[in-house]
Design brief:
Largest interface: A-B, 25 and 39 residues
Strand order of the largest sheet of chain A: 17-16-18-19-25-24-23-21
Order of helices and strands of chain B: HEEHEEHHEEHHEHEHEEHEH
Helix content of chain A: 10-25%
Strand order of the largest sheet of chain B: 6-5-4-7-8-11
Structural class of chain B: alpha/beta
Strand content of chain A: 25-35%
Radius of gyration of chain A: 38 Å
Distance between the termini of chain A: 40 Å
Number of strands of chain A: 33
Number of strands of chain B: 11
Structural class of chain A: alpha/beta
Oligomer: heterodimer
Number of helices of chain A: 12
Distance between the termini of chain B: 34 Å
Shape of chain A: elongated
Shape of chain B: elongated
Largest sheet of chain B: 6 strands, mixed
Strand content of chain B: 15-25%
Largest sheet of chain A: 8 strands, mixed
Number of helices of chain B: 10
Chain lengths: ~650, ~300
């Protein structure tokens, strides 16, 4: 056995005054009495154990000396043989995922219990030990790097907040192993409810000590909630909802679906273990809004009892078809696209109508209009391209599979008669390529707006008669308006979100969380990446300019509401931000039954007890002094 | 110890005893002997040889019975004060600074009772004893002897290695010219038991009156912790650890000891007075007078 602070052995000198005062105290006081006849009767039995009587005094001194010895031993902080080799590198891995927000029967959350236990561990640190803190909920965060300053970790533990995200214990363990690279000194302590699938491997890892928190509690959750616009009904939508029970007993509850404040459906549920309820709810709404699903059940976890989805608003799309002669096929297809307001004219306008685009058919003005532009069968050069001769057998042999303009479109091996050779001046993305490598269709992103060029003579071939053509036109409409097929999926917590942004909105994008805090988004070309998102609710994404304008407008509106008399103030014109719903939608998180069995919570890698030796020494010391006081100072034994 | 003030208080007590308790205290009590007094006591059968002067002729004339008249014989009362002068009475040793010495208190009581007896023309003798009779003041009568009595008491000192009342009574009764009232003033800390001595007095036709003297500290000692107790008489020591529980046991035993003395005296119709040194001696005497008045 070794000691952390052997210099504190000097405190053993405390025993000297104890012995001195003890001898002083135990020196017998001589007391003459008139008679011993009563005392003889009082101590009649006592004298029969004279030896014990003598030893009793020394036993008292011995107890006091043992008390001092134990206290001094605690001060020098002895180490077990396994402990003395090196100081530890402890990595506290605190799970703050959604399931840790579950409220236990004692009224506290699992995270609160885990934090209490984490604080106990921090208190038990010895000199030379290092400690780090990592949170393993939603995203892995190294809250405090490896340090020997316990109070910093203690404060950080207190600051850890619950998230609605998934458990990332496995990733956190890898991070912890990188953080504490020394295999011998490393000790990873996982404080979690172990409501995740890879819990058992964690329990079996040799360098990991698991400390489970929380009991098995029942829960009912909305595990899936998605909405999308109908492909056949311009204003219709479909909602997929899934509800699961994570309880051993059947649960009766009610699912309420609302669009804004309008009730959509109320479904009574009787849920059995392992039998999720799934249903697709269809309805129609042009205005769109926030669709919510709520189950009225009082369970341990609230964040999975409510799910949201954003139903996009259906707006009319003004489309200007510029063509020197009527094109029946093209007009019919464009008019067939839902919500399109088609205007046919022969002269090209200078710019596209707001919220719409221009279709140039067989005509190319000297200056291309600004705004989104669909060019079909161009007959002359422009700033963006130069045309060549018609291609004899323009058969498509390749199409861009990743382009948002070509989903559900298959034109490979299709002959597109009348197609011309084209040479694009800007960086164009080829979408359809012929056998000789000629680009038959391309998309361009100009400063003035997006543009799609299709060098196909519609009247010469069967392209307008193919199903792919209206789909291609619909895709083009969606691409121009940055709409992904009217499908705006609800997100799960802990995930990243990619938002396609337009060049006009700049590259400085931000997102606003449910608390109203603004976070910068990572912008790459035309994509802004936000997240990961920790909390369920609604988030907004937009350019910093738009977000700032909206916040100012909100402040102004708030001021106006405070000044009721002044009603003539102008309201700032703001642009709607992109809105996304974030749900838990994680069956593993909603299942509050630990996935770990026979946790080796007491299996300490270094072979010591759950606490340091000094703690037990102190406890024994105070036990001794209490016993000594009870036996001798109170003079129970006489 | 016996100053002018003390003697004044003795005189006061003497007057008080005559005025309030006339005929009820000490010498004014009649002896139980019948004989040649003037106060009629009872009749008995005439036996041949009796003095015919005491034959009740009136009864003989009316009934023809020959009855002899008996009279209460009046004689001087002999008062013996048996004063315990063992070392246990000297609380100057056991309780230094603990108030009036028990032996001094006992001597004051002895002086008071003797004074009252002398004032009542009784014969008084004082016997100081420990395990045997140490000093004896012979029988004397009349207040003229008060000074010599006080001087005798003042010169007494505690002595001995134990208390043995039985042996003392045995010796004393042989020396006493006749029986009488025996006032035993003692703490009664007799290892052989106080009963033997009192019994011996009773058996020898003395009329014992027990006056027990002790201190408050003896009844409730203020001792805690490790102490070495030393018996001041035998010098025997005892090393003990006194706890609260042991103290309670001691007080219980002492209380039982008091109860035993009271019970003993009650059974045999003896007068018993218990006095602690914190109470003035004259109050103790007044208490005795009151008890005597109540009894009578």
């Amino acid at each position: 056995m070794n000691f952390v602070s052997p210099e504190r052995l000097i405190w053993l000198w405390v025993a000297a005054p104890i012995i001195f005062f003890y001898l002083l105290k135990t020196r017998l006081r001589k007391q003459p009495v008139a008679t011993l006849m009563f005392w003889d009767q009082v101590f009649e039995q006592k004298r029969q154990r004279t030896l014990l009587q003598r030893l009793r005094h020394w036993l008292s001194l011995l107890l006091q000396l043992i008390f001092v010895s134990l206290l001094v031993s605690a001060l020098v902080d002895p180490l077990w043989s396994g402990q003395q080799e090196s100081s530890r590198q402890v990595v506290l891995l605190l799970d703050n995922s959604a399931s840790m927000s579950a409220i236990e029967k004692n009224g506290t959350t699992r995270l609160a219990d885990a934090k209490d236990k984490a604080l106990e561990i921090v208190r038990e640190l010895r000199d030379g030990d290092e400690i780090a803190l990592i949170t393993a909920g939603s995203v892995v965060r190294v809250v405090v790097g490896m340090t020997d300053f316990g109070p910093a970790v203690r404060d950080a533990v207190k600051q850890v907040q619950e998230t609605d995200g998934p458990t990332r214990v496995s990733e956190a363990i890898e991070t912890a192993r990188r953080l504490a690279a020394d295999d011998v000194r490393r000790e990873i302590i996982v404080l979690s409810d172990f409501c995740f699938r890879e819990a058992t491997p964690v329990n079996e890892a040799p360098d990991i000590r698991v400390i489970p928190v929380g009991d098995e509690v029942d829960n009912v959750a909305i595990t899936q909630f998605q909405v999308r616009r109908s492909l056949v009904d311009p204003i219709g939508y479909s909602t997929l909802v899934e509800v699961q029970s994570f309880s051993d007993v059947p649960v009766d509850c009610r699912l309420t679906v609302k669009l804004g404040d309008d009730l959509v459906d109320v479904i009574p549920l009787k849920l059995e273990e392992g039998q999720p309820f799934r249903r697709t709810i269809t309805d129609a709404s042009q205005a769109g809004g926030i669709l919510t699903a709520k189950i009225d059940v009082d369970d341990a976890l609230d964040s999975d009892n409510l799910a949201r989805a954003v139903l996009p608003k259906r707006t009319r799309i003004p489309v200007t078809l510029v063509t020197p002669e009527p094109s029946l096929y093209l007009e019919s297809v464009l008019q067939a696209i839902p919500l399109v307001n088609l205007t046919v004219q022969s002269d090209a306008p200078e710019k596209a109508p707001a919220g719409g685009f221009i279709v140039l058919h067989r005509t190319v003005p000297q200056t291309l209009p600004s705004g989104p532009l669909l060019v079909i069968d161009p007959n002359s050069d422009s700033d963006a391209w130069k045309i060549g001769d018609r291609i004899p057998e323009p058969i498509v042999i390749a199409q861009d599979p990743d382009s948002p303009l070509l989903p559900h479109v298959r034109l490979t091996n299709v002959v597109l008669p009348g197609a011309r050779e084209m040479e694009f001046t800007d960086n164009a993305t080829p979408l359809l390529t012929s056998a000789d490598g000629t680009t038959l269709m391309a998309s361009l992103v100009r400063p003035q707006g997006r543009m799609v060029v299709l060098s196909v003579e519609l009247d010469s071939g069967d392209l307008p008669l193919r199903i792919a053509f209206p789909v291609l036109m619909t895709n083009a409409v969606n691409w121009f308006l940055s709409r992904d097929g009217e499908l705006q999926p609800a997100l799960s917590t802990g995930k990243l979100l990619d938002v396609t942004c337009s060049a006009s909105e700049g590259s400085d994008w931000v997102w606003v969380d449910i608390d109203g805090d603004v976070h910068p988004a990572t912008t790459s070309e035309m994509t802004a990446t936000v997240g990961p998102i920790d909390k369920v609710g609604l988030i907004e994404v937009g350019s910093r300019r738009d977000v700032t304008a909206k916040q100012l407008a909100a402040q102004q509106q708030e001021q106006d509401s405070g000044e009721a008399a002044d009603t003539n103030k102008s309201v700032l014109a703001t642009k709607d931000l992109y809105q996304f719903a974030v749900n838990l939608s994680d069956a593993a998180e909603s299942d509050l039954r630990p996935q770990i069995e026979n946790a080796k919570a007491q299996d300490i890698r270094f072979g010591s007890g759950a606490r340091s030796i000094w703690f037990y020494l102190t406890i024994i010391a105070f036990g001794l002094v209490i016993g000594e006081w009870f036996l001798y100072q109170r003079r129970i034994v006489g | 110890m016996f100053d002018t003030e003390f003697i004044k208080r003795l005189e006061y007590l003497s007057l008080l005893s005559k005025r309030v308790f006339k005929g009820q205290l000490l010498a004014q009590r009649r002896t139980k002997q019948t004989g040649g007094g003037v106060e009629f006591a009872d009749h008995r059968e005439y036996i041949h040889g009796d003095d015919l002067r005491y034959l009740d002729w009136g009864v003989y004339a009316r009934h023809g019975d020959m009855l002899l008249k008996r009279f209460q014989e009046e004689e001087d009362l002999h008062v013996y004060v048996l004063l315990d002068a063992s070392v246990s009475m000297n609380t100057a040793v056991t309780e230094p600074g603990g108030g009036l010495n028990k032996f001094d208190f006992a001597r004051q009581l002895a002086a008071s009772l003797a004074y009252i007896a002398l004032a009542d023309l009784d014969r008084v003798s004082i016997v100081a004893y420990d395990e045997r009779v140490r000093h004896t003041l012979p029988l004397m009568r009349g207040k003229d002897n008060v000074l010599s009595l006080l001087r005798f008491l003042e010169n007494l000192e505690t002595s001995g290695q134990q208390t043995n009342l039985a042996a003392v009574v045995d010796d004393f009764s042989r020396r006493a010219p006749r029986t009488g009232l025996a006032l035993v003033i003692s703490d009664l800390y007799d290892h052989l038991g106080f009963k033997q001595g009192i019994d011996a007095l009773r058996h020898r036709q003395f009329e014992p009156h027990v006056i027990q003297v002790h201190t408050l500290a003896e009844a409730k000692p203020d001792l805690l912790g490790d102490v070495e107790l030393r018996d001041v008489e035998s010098s025997r020591t005892m090393k003990v650890t006194v706890t609260e529980r042991k103290l309670k046991q001691y007080e219980q035993l002492f209380s039982q000891f008091i109860d035993e003395i009271e019970g003993y005296c009650r059974i045999y119709g003896l007068s018993y007075t218990r006095a602690t040194t914190d109470v003035p001696f004259d109050e103790v005497l007044l208490k005795m007078m009151r008890v005597a008045g109540a009894i009578s």
